[in-house]
Amino acid sequence: MRKDSGQSLVELALVLPLLVLLTLGTYDVALAMRTKNTLINLSREGANLALRGSRTVADLQTVMTSLAATAHPLEMDKEGMMYVIQVKVKDGVRTINPIAWDKNPSGPCSKIDTNDPSSLAGTVPVANGDSVCIFEVVYTYKSVLLPSYARELHSITVF
């Protein structure tokens, strides 16, 4: 037998864990990017659908529930939350009405502070007598590679 028989097997044993880790890392990043793109599309479509309706709380709840049903593979009812924030200006007085999706009350919190006048809800330009809606989608992404690592992703569309 030759002295270097089995060398390739040893090299493979040394390199294979690194290749598997690199592959899983790439897969995890791709899943995170898909999740973020899905959230962006959900917020845009939510804004589009909410704009077409009467903007009552019941209609907006129906829009959010319908969007959650189309968000596969995301589990919006377990890891996600949607918010519609209505901003109205009448006689120079700004009123802010946040509406949370009622299907996951323990979901992630909104990133928009409706009590802070310097937040998006307090600074979005609204003409007197008009109203603007902010559609926000928040989702807790859990890493495949590190299951204990969770990060909240969100997307906001103003309409």
Q: What average pLDDT do the residues reach?
A: 92
**How much is the radius of gyration in Å?**
23 Å
Q: Structural class of the secondary structure composition?
A: alpha+beta
Going across the biggest sheet, name each strand in turn.
2-1-3-4
Largest sheet: 4 strands, antiparallel
How large is the count of helical segments?
4
Number of strands: 4
Low-confidence stretches: none
- Strand fraction equals 25-35%
Query: What is the chain-wise order of helices and strands?
Result: HHHEEHEE
Number of domains: 1
What is the rounded distance between the termini?
75 Å
Percent helix among the residues? 40-55%
The outline comes out as: elongated
Structure explained in plain terms:
This protein has helices at 7-52, 57-69, 76-79, 120-123, and strands spanning 80-90, 93-100, 131-142, 150-158. The protein is an alpha+beta fold and 159 residues long. The chain has one domain (7-158). A 4-stranded antiparallel beta sheet has the order 2-1-3-4. The termini are far apart. The mean pLDDT is 92.
